[in-house]
Design goal:
695 residues, alpha+beta, Beta-galactosidase, Chain A, domain 5, TIM Barrel, 3 domains, eight-stranded parallel barrel, binds (2R,3S,4R,5S)-2-(hydroxymethyl)piperidine-3,4,5-triol
Length: 695
């Protein structure tokens, strides 16, 4: 809902539980008024009447109060917008008009400003309790407009003491680790200067003063961009906090706008919740399922992926042997990973040549795809389209298609170089290769990988090569959009050496993401705990792999523990099934059957994190209508300290719930207040408990 004051200078966006308000002063200063619980327009108008503080000359009354601080004039905070023309630097805007629009039933507010022919439009749209913000800048006539920085939004939090910052940091194979620290004066900056979202940080921050998992106010923001990015969180000299973020890490040359050209930032989304971190997560999950992830109402199938089983050493016969076993345990989608194309028998060659390897697949992929379909499964393949090995036909034909700096060494990481997807000819080549691939064999699923960062982001011959940073990502998005439109039955997975490209931007074009290359079931619990702060189980791919996992940390764990860990997301299997015993396969079948039964609750239900993975008992709960599923893991049993009961959430205290596993009927009030015993003992034990409301 969008309310507008009579004078057309105060705006109030309202979601189911929250409101967001802003006001334009007579001097065209755009002030942030409110972000928090629902308020009335009259409340916003009262806030708008508050005079600005009279600090001068060492503090700015605008700092910490503006909706989108631009560079220039009496401001000392980090500018969200920094523009350079031939004449000058900075922005001094004049309000032009506002308009509103409904797109997909949502209210959108557009505020239009002008600075001497540069048009700046601020977009706000409320979706559920998520405020989506983005900005567009048009060069109406200057010879050149250089956008040194154009953040998607600046978020302003209310005056409070003792802000804490939560973030999801990590590295390859250890992504999405949740950490919370007190915010101190000054700035905390996170981001990626790697050309992709990066394993090091999910583009998300959350701020609170005293919230817990299920209570208290939480402000959280997440950026929808799959290239380099930056989010800066500033504790200002007073009790205010501002969070500003957008595409690009450094200030040097984001984009050059020729006359008539424009730039639109990605979306920076924010939400306020008074339901603690759990409430904020559930609001994010609902938002992504409703507005971001394509076909989110559809269940994701149980997949098998060949990577950990066969690595680069693959053949049609061997994949078929795996496929037969995968089908026998109930797998629904069989994915051939790396190694099926070009001269790709190791990571030294073949990237760029997207035709089946003639020794391995003499008749192409179709015979295998047909047999996989004959086994009742869908068929998927792995690709890494943005990359090329120097040892490939593509690179030999087009060495200038990669990102490179003239006269400098081309840095090879994993023996590969990055193609320049900002170039139309490169995109066109990839489109033809991938379209042919998807047309030539019945492919239902594409795992789209990206296995190295940008290091030499040059573009010889291009007058403004810096645009590569943004245009590569736009090129990726355009390619994905075009492939999805041409092959609507094909689902896509975003992967980047595990979780290196997970963000709201890529999720709006992919069906799920590869969470981490770390498939150890215990390590995964911490990764999944962090991931779930922002993203729903419906997109979180998780595989059951071998034990001991010699490719990873060598840990020995039961099939039970591995399955229950992976069942917290989109279940997959990635072990070498040809080495699994008949008993293992029979047990796997039972787990897969159980997963299919609980899948609608896991993939579409509301998540409650009952206990974080901190060494002892951890658990999550999913609730959907009358059904509840609890997944619990005991890492290590201490003598004399039995695992505690789990206090469930989201149940009706007046109702009763029957547990399928124990046959016991529990009263809702008892489950909520006293909890449910899991019966877990020993080390690395796990269980699934299904509860059904019975009255
Ligand atoms: C990295 C991915 O994360 C793995 O799952 C696998 O696909 C390899 N790349 C293949 O090269």
């Amino acid at each position: 809902m969008l309310d507008i004051a009579e004078d057309g200078r105060t705006w109030l966006l309202t979601g189911p539980t929250s409101s967001y308000a802003l006001h334009l002063t007579g001097a065209d200063e755009l002030l942030h008024l409110h972000w928090g619980p629902r308020i009335a327009l009259a409340d916003a108008e009262a806030l708008a009447r508050d005079p600005l503080p009279g600090y001068w000359p060492f503090e700015s009354p605008l700092d910490g109060r503006e909706e989108y601080p631009v560079e220039g004039g009496p401001r000392f905070v980090r500018p969200a917008l920094s523009v350079r023309t031939e004449e000058r630097r900075g922005t001094e805007w004049r309000f032009v008009s506002y308009d509103t629009g409904r797109e997909g039933g949502d209210d959108e507010l557009r505020l239009r400003f002008d600075d001497d022919g540069i048009a700046i439009t601020l977009h706000h749209r409320m979706r559920g309790d998520v405020v989506e913000r983005w900005v567009s800048v048009d060069n109406g006539g200057h010879a050149r407009v250089e956008l040194l920085r154009a953040d998607a939004a600046t978020w302003t939090l209310p005056d409070r003491e003792g802000w804490r910052l939560s973030q999801l940091h990590g590295r390859w194979a250890a992504e999405s680790r949740l950490t919370t620290v007190p915010l101190t004066y000054g700035e905390k900056v996170i981001g990626s200067r790697r050309g992709h979202t990066g394993h090091q940080h999910l583009p998300w921050v959350a701020l609170d003063t005293d919230a817990a998992e299920e209570r208290g106010e939480v402000y959280a923001c997440a950026l929808g961009w799959s290239g380099s990015w930056r989010i800066a969180v500033a504790q200002l000299p007073d009790a205010r906090v501002q969070i500003t973020g957008g595409a690009g890490y450094d200030d040097s040359g984001l984009l050059l706008l020729q006359p008539g050209e424009s730039y639109t930032t990605p979306v920076f989304a924010g939400l306020w919740s008074d339901g603690g971190f759990g409430g904020a997560s559930r609001a994010w999950h609902a938002y992504q399922r409703a507005y971001v992830v394509p076909d989110a109402e559809r269940d994701r199938p149980v997949l098998f992926n060949s990577w950990e089983a066969t690595n680069f050493d693959i053949s049609e016969e061997q994949q078929l042997a795996l496929a037969r076993r995968a089908a026998a345990i109930g797998v629904e989608l069989f994915v051939v990973d790396d190694g099926w194309f070009g001269a790709r028998t190791a990571d030294r060659a073949g990237l760029g040549d997207w035709t089946p390897n003639p020794d391995r697949f003499p008749h192409g992929l179709k015979p295998l795809a047909d047999q996989v379909h004959g086994l009742g499964m869908r068929f998927g393949i792995w690709v890494e389209p943005e990359m090329v090995n120097p040892d490939s036909d593509l690179y030999r034909a087009h060495p200038d298609w990669v990102q490179y700096q003239p006269g400098r060494r081309r840095t090879e990481l994993r023996n590969q170089l990055v193609l320049n997807l900002a170039r139309e000819d490169v995109r066109e080549y990839l489109w033809e290769q991938l379209d042919t691939l998807l047309s030539g064999a019945p492919v239902d699923y594409v795992k789209w990988d990206f296995n190295r960062c940008f290091t030499d982001a040059g573009w010889p011959g291009e007058p403004y090569p810096q645009r590569l940073w943004v245009d590569h990502v736009r090129g990726l998005y355009a390619l994905l959009d075009r492939l999805r439109a041409a092959h609507p039955g094909v689902a896509f997975e975003s992967c980047s050496g595990g979780g290196g490209r997970i963000d709201l931007g890529v999720l709006s074009r992919t069906d799920q993401v590869w969470t981490s290359d770390n498939t150890d079931p215990l390590d995964r619990l911490a990764i999944q705990h962090g991931f779930s702060q922002l993203h729903p189980a419906r997109v979180m791919a998780a595989w059951v792999t071998d034990s001991p996992n010699t490719q990873l940390n060598g840990r020995v764990s039961s099939l039970r523990f591995r399955f229950v860990s992976a069942m917290a997301g989109v279940l997959g299997v990635g072990g070498d099934l040809t080495e699994w015993s008949d008993e293992d396969l029979a047990e796997a079948r039972r787990w897969v059957d159980l997963y299919k039964e609980i899948r609608p609750v896991v993939q579409h239900g509301e998540l409650y994190r009952l206990r974080p993975p901190a060494g002892g008992l951890s658990a999550v709960q999913y609730v959907r209508g009358a059904q509840t599923v609890v997944l619990a893991w005991l890492q290590a049993q201490r003598y004399g300290e039995p695992a505690p009961a789990l206090r469930l959430r989201g149940l009706d205290p007046a109702a009763s719930y029957a547990c399928r596993e124990t046959g016991q009927v529990h009263r809702g009030a008892v489950l909520l207040h006293h909890g449910l015993r899991t019966g877990l003992t020993g080390d690395l034990d796990a269980t699934v408990l299904r509860l059904q409301r019975v009255g």
